[in-house]
# Entry
Amino acid sequence: MTTTDDSRSDIKWVSQNNKLVPYAEAKISIMAPGLTFAALVFEGFRAYWNAEREDLLIFRLEDHLKRLEFSMALLELDDPPSRETFAKDILETLRANEFRADTYIRLQVYVDEWGSMNSTGPVGSSVICRPRPRVANFQTGQNFIVSTWRRNGENASPSRMKASGNYLNSRLAGLEAKRQGAGGAIMLNDDGTVGEGPGGCLFILRDGVFITPDVTSNILESITRGTILEIGGPLGIPMVERTVGRTELYLAEEAFYCGTGQEIMPITAFDGKPVGTGEPGPLTRKLQIRFDEIVRGATDDHDDWRTPVYKS
Ligand code: PMP
# Structure
């Protein structure tokens, strides 16, 4: 087994089927369709520690729960728990673990026990929270490859749905990048346009404008991407969503990868060709700083994006 991100020992309590249980006691059936047929959808998001307020602030909880509702509807689950129930489970789990550091929250909903490919119940759910610091390459950035694997198509295994099954495609690209000594991968669509990476979306800067593949480019409708699109304009950084061609990657003046895990991580090269100077760019830095202020609650702006955990 190899893992670079192991915080199991920090997890005391998880929520399973809407009840708190010790992590070691949370189990699902080995014949659960969630496992055997990947009948599982999930969400991943962060809560940021604000030392001054001594509080954890969940970033865009409501938007993540809304996206989960869409994923659950596509999976056609029997009567899954409501947004309110999940919000309550998440708060309870975070409080029970008493985390006082940046935390990652994984919420998953699946078909449990026993069943076929088409089973729609019984529905199980779990909330697992663990400390998760910022990625090591946040400042320095990473080099990316364009993967030889194509991104899941809208009519095959839609990326808009946050389903564990989609991550087989992501894994293939991630392993390819790892074999090549790259920090990450970007996948193209079948028509050769740019999709996204295994676990994040992409922005490139051309002529002073940040461009990101649009929501019909086989991407997950990333909440980090949406946040960046919203905060860029007021900083004087124009933002555009459109189809992106592969060769545009090689013309980019700056580029970054974004998502809950990476937040905003500079991309320093594509296929060995340096992006701009080969160093993280100034506009990427500006977005990182503003993003950090917002997620951490160092500003009152966008207060509705932050849900306090201990002082609500
Ligand atoms: N694309 C994929 C495939 C992802 O797994 C993620 C991470 N959830 C993202 C994009 C980024 O989405 P978000 O900003 O909502 O975390």
